[in-house]
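Justification of computing resources. Each target in the renewal requires a structure prediction run like the one illustrated here; the chain below, 224 residues long, is used simply to show the kind of job we budget for.
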Amino acid sequence: MLSKSELRDVAFWSEGLSEVEFERVRRGLTEKACAAGSTICHRGDRLDYWTGVGSGLLKISAVSKSGKAITFAGVGPGGWFGEGTILKKEPRKYDLVALRDTRLLLLNQATFDWLFENSVGFNRYLVRQLNERMGQFIATIEYDRLLAPAGRVARHIAWLCNPVLYPKSGPLIEIGQEELALLVGVSRQVVNKCLQELEAEGLLSVARNGVTVKDRQRLQVYGE
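Resulting structure tokens:
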């Protein structure tokens, strides 16, 4: 069982819970280690847990029968996802892949349902989370169809430092170019070229351990 301080660190939404609710979460939470490259679940599988990322990086994506792939989102430390699926109690509609060694946090269905029925603070968080996630998915579809690669790279980086979805994120996004390429759906060479372009415009700086965001607002609208 996670300590109180450990839980606060990986689940910022728990700050809005009462002591009784908080302890209920601690009892309903388990951890799982996933190796880089491993598939956590396939589209159509059941994963009856609300899922958070303690450390690492995940890709939420899907592949059509014809082989066409789309990436919906990347999820970094502090991010939680899957609330829609848990609420509807249905199989996953996406593949979930660990892009690097990842520590998952799994809140079981019974605890999630109890919080949903009893916790005002938890429901306030869910409304905000669902609204932000909906905006992300709509934006992803839009810029995947309309924007050039540099715009798509810029938008993905901007989402990875979204303070609502990923409250542990800061200016430094610890992500490799290969990982970013997998999220955006382009080659590593294309990502490298796009990052150089964005760096030259002063929107970010590239380092060995990731990307430091200098102007998130401009990254959010880059390419329009």
